[in-house]
Structures are given as C-alpha cells and as structure tokens.
Design goal:
The protein is an alpha/beta fold. Helices cover 41% and strands 13% of the residues. GO terms for molecular function: glucuronosyltransferase activity.
C-alpha cells in the first residue's frame, strides 16, 4: 500500500510541477477528530520517508485533539481562534451513548451549525495571521493534501498559489468529492455518509436520503459563498470556491476499502487506501509472547 501511494504521489508531482529532487508539500489538517488527524499524519510520514519537505498545518477545531498525527519529523504549524465552542456539541458529550439509533440524519443540526461556525472562525483567524500567511506563501508549496470536510482550504490554496490538490477523506466518499470528480449523486441508490442506511433501502429510506441530498447540496453552496465573501473582501475578484476545487484537484484518496463501501460509480481519480492509519503491530515482550 505504501509503495502504491508513493508511486501515485510521484506521478501527480511529476505531471503537475517542475522536476525537483524533493517537493514542498503542505498537509492541511483541521482537527475534526483523531482519525482525521491520524490519516493525514500518516500521509505526511509516507511523504517524509520519501524525502519530501512536509509542513503540517493544523487548524484547531476540536481542542482535545492536540497531536499532529505524524511520527516522522515535519514542520508543524497550529492555528487557533479566540473563541471555540466545539465541545458544546452533543456528539462530544455523554448523551452520545444514551442516544437511540438514528433513523435519518445521524448528526444533530445544532452540531452541524457548531462545526460550520468554528470552521469559519479558524479560517478567519488564519487569514488575520499575516505572519503565518507570509511564511506559508514563501514556502512555495508544490502540492497540498487537504481534508475534504471543510471549505476554507481551497481559498487559502489559491492565495498561496499552490497548483495541485489531493483531496483526502477519512469518512469515505463525500458529496464534494463526487462533484469534483464529475460523478452525479445517486441518492435513490447510494446512501449518504451521515445516514444509517445501506444500498438496500426501503422506499421511505430512499425518500429521506433523497431529501437529505438536496438539503446538503443547497447548504454546500451557501457555505461556499460565505467563504468566498470572506476571501473576496480581502482579494477582490476572487474566484469561486467550487471553481478552485475543480481546477486544482488532481487526485482523491479515501481511507476506506472499496469493497466495504456501498456500491457506487467511481473513476481513476478516486483511490481507496483503507488501512492507512493501521500501523504494523509491535512484537510482544518475551515473557508475554510465551
């Protein structure tokens, strides 16, 4: 798996950037959760081991996630906002374990609003940090591996003049990945990632799944417009977030096994790399191995 990943990254870099012995690569790693950070940190380790110059930029959403996810040396930068209400989400409290099984959307709307608010705050905090932005711009990154869940990244990559993006997801295929890869959403057959459904849905489940797809699509454009307004106020004539993602994305990686996903259309642009956060087990001590 590691050899395959290195080959893929090498092809992307060789096609989209001038030849160099090592590339400057940015890892865009918002702290949505430990699994997200571990996935991106492992990617950073693979790139570092291959001789590339890696910088991990962590945007603090969940303050309980304090690591960068990497084991090998890398440049690390952490951005924090003055206000953070992430821990007020229901999913972060004890009520999670008392919640009955969900029948539609498995995330509360209030939690989604908190995620959106904190993501916007941390994006603004980075844009307000002139010193860090100048430092990042001076790094002249050739490539960025970016968390798919948030919408600040594409705009920042445009400001930093990063030519190529690899979208990564720790949650399987996300709606944005389908759109960028040119695949149409098929909510009548493929369940959304935040629902409990399988590909064998009842009519009522298909109806709910279809409605959620429309809601998320509408919400996506609203959120992207919010980030565009933030960036356009600073850089007049700024391109749309959608167009940046379309033009810069060279590859997509999702941390699931393709045969464990619900059946769905795919393209060569999408690579399944399930198991990226599973490290080889360490040998037991002699007294325990017997």
């Amino acid at each position: 798996m590691v050899k395959w990943l290195l080959l893929t990254v090498g092809i992307v870099i060789s096609l989209r950037t001038p030849f160099t012995s090592a590339s400057n690569i940015l890892i865009w790693s918002p702290t949505f959760g430990h699994s997200h950070v571990a996935f991106l940190g492992n990617i950073a380790d693979v790139l570092t081991a291959d001789g590339h110059n890696v910088t991990i930029l962590t945007l603090t959403l969940d303050p309980n996630v304090t690591t960068f996810g990497n084991r090998l040396p890398a440049h690390t930068i952490r951005i924090e906002s003055e206000e953070n209400n992430w821990l007020q989400m229901d999913v972060k409290g004890p009520s999670l374990w008392n919640t009955p099984p969900c029948t539609g959307l498995c995330t509360r709307t209030s939690d989604l609003l908190i995620i959106a608010e904190q993501s916007y705050r941390i994006c603004k905090a980075l844009l307000d940090d002139d010193e860090t932005m100048k430092k990042l711009l001076a790094s002249k990154f050739d490539l960025v591996f970016s968390e798919t869940l948030e919408n600040c990244g594409p705009g920042i990559f445009q400001v930093l003049n990063i030519p190529s993006v690899v979208m990564v997801s720790a949650l399987g295929m996300m709606p944005k990945m389908l759109e960028v890869s040119g695949l149409r959403a098929t909510p009548s057959f493929v369940p959304l990632c935040l629902t409990p459904y399988s590909d064998e849905m009842t009519f009522f489940e298909r109806f709910i799944n279809f409605n959620l797809q429309m809601i998320f699509s509408t919400y996506k454009y609203k959120v992207e417009d919010q980030y565009w307004q933030l960036l356009n106020d600073r850089y007049p004539g700024f391109p749309s977030i959608e167009s940046i993602s379309m033009n810069k994305t060279a590859l997509m990686m999702t941390n699931v096994h393709e045969f464990a996903e619900s059946p769905r259309p795919t393209t060569n642009m999408i690579r399944y790399v399930g198991g990226m956060t599973i490290y080889p087990p360490k040998a037991l001590r002699a007294q325990r191995s017997t």
